[in-house]
Design a protein that fits this description.
mainly alpha, 9 helices, 2 domains, rod-shaped, Rna Polymerase Sigma Factor, Chain: A
Length: about 180
């Protein structure tokens, strides 16, 4: 392990930013190595690095000179902070967050204007179904929407399966052409 100047550690402990930055720079390789070992679902590499930095800050704050080498103490604090974060990330209580898929930014709920337009479009399609389709075509379309096969629809309507398929094709063509 590398040796640290006790004065540097004292300055970092007192809050001097340049001393703290020097400690971070010298400990960053160890922090990054530990982060690579602690990466799990729910704790990515960058989060593990942040946890290591928190461990280093705790080491600086709680280190008492004369009780051992700072480098060993800081390395242990960093490793423990990263391991604790990895254990916390793999707990079952975080499973919904770890397994969730983020929603796209543009998936906002439709506003009243969009709902009104969709409502008008649905009303228009229903009106066209009622006015442009024959009873046979309407029946075939409604059965297809319900997920019934041509054979099931033919039995329900008392027709041949080929006649049902033709009626459904005509209904689709009429509705597509009217849009």
């Amino acid at each position: 392990m590398q040796q640290f100047d006790p004065e540097l550690i004292a300055r970092a402990k007192s809050g001097e930013e340049t001393a703290l930055a020097a400690l971070i720079a010298r400990m960053m390789p160890a922090i990054r190595r530990g982060a690579a070992r602690c990466t799990v679902p729910g704790l990515d590499f960058e989060d593990a690095v942040q946890e290591g930095l928190i461990g280093l800050f705790d080491a600086v704050r709680s280190y008492e000179p004369g009780r051992g080498a700072f480098a060993s103490y800081a390395a242990a604090c960093i490793a423990h902070a990263q391991q604790d974060a990895a254990r916390a990330a793999t707990r079952k209580k975080h499973a919904p967050l770890n397994d969730s898929v983020p929603l796209p930014e543009d998936s906002a709920a439709p506003g009243p204007e969009e709902l009104a337009i969709v409502g008008e479009t649905v009303d228009d399609v229903i009106r066209r179904i009622k006015t442009q389709l024959s009873p046979m075509e309407r029946g075939a379309l409604l059965c297809a929407i319900d997920g019934r096969s041509a054979a099931e629809t033919a039995r329900l309507l008392g027709r041949e399966p080929k006649a049902v398929e033709n009626a459904l094709a005509r209904a689709r063509r009429k509705l597509r052409g009217a849009t």
